[in-house]
Amino acid sequence: MKRIVFLVLVLALVVSGSAAAAEQYKIGILAPAVTHGWVAAVAYHAEARCKELADEVVYRIQTSGNAEEMTAQLDDLMTWGAEAIVAFPQWEGMEVSMQRALDAGIPVVNFDIVIDLDGVYRVAGDNEDMGIQGGHYIVDKVGPEATVVMLEVPSSGSVSALRKKGFLDTVAEIAPDLNILTYATQFTREDGLKDFADILTRNPKIDAVYSMDDETSVGVLQAIREAGRTDIQVITGGGGMQEYFNMMPENDDIWLQSALYSPAMVKDAVDVALQVLKGEEVEMVKIIPTTIVDKDNYQDFLDPHSPY
């Protein structure tokens, strides 16, 4: 009889342990449609992390082309029963829809571009510090009185605004006589090529380019080569693009720099969502420091498995 009771207790513990181990949380991920290699890599890394957490996480990923579409997809995820949302908007204007999720008791983890709401967790690289580092890098290479083209991307919201702020504030402090020419573009190599080809025709002398994105910088470099220009000594970038890293040692006459802003950071956002759902203590904001990559250290950042 005691043996039977013992076996029943053991079986109950096994079943209880299996049920506990099988507890899963439903996490919805909102990402933009792929218009950029970095964006594609974000979705890739988010899904990869969810698969790594398969014992604890059930997930759905939705991609959208604009804020309105992302709002509709948020509704879909809420209907599905998402217990937390990881949101990576490429546009401003998601506050109203995300507030609806918060009001429903669904934690929101904001990746990259700021969703300006109280109660939203946030994971991002240090956009402002990317600008600070870019300012120091350019002045160090070309001096405090050079002519620099700054390529901003107003449509990217806080990303461009913070990188611009960091750059301009730094230059105002360390090189107030720097001649800055500002132009708007997009985070694509096609726009970098097209826009910078036009910029080159307007400006016969340029010492450096403060570009905020590696793909833009690839286009900028192509425009410079096609125009046969030899005056430009520095092109910055940002993101962590393997193709751009590999260009660094091949262009001895120009310092190509990237402020590393890895798309793999989104894994941290997924982790934050899971930690919140498990009742763990989590900081509201996690900012990942900037690392500078150029031809002196690019080999340390090569990753043959990276989708970007």
From the structure above, extract its key features:
five-stranded parallel beta sheet, 2 domains, Rossmann fold, 308 residues, single chain, six-stranded parallel beta sheet
Polypeptide structure, described:
Helix 2 packs parallel to helix 10, helix 5 runs parallel beside helix 6 (158-174) and helix 7 crosses helix 8. The protein has 308 residues and is α/β, with parallel strands linked by helices. It is elongated, with a radius of gyration of 23 Å. The chain folds into 2 domains: 21-123 and 263-287, Rossmann fold (3-Layer(aba) Sandwich), CATH 3.40.50.2300; 127-260, Response regulator (Rossmann fold). The chain has helices at residues 2-21, 37-52, 67-80, 95-103, 127-142, 158-174, 189-202, 214-227, 242-247, 266-277; strands spanning 25-32, 57-64, 84-87, 108-111, 121-125, 147-152, 179-184, 208-211, 234-235, 238-239, 255-256, 258-260, 285-288, 291-293.
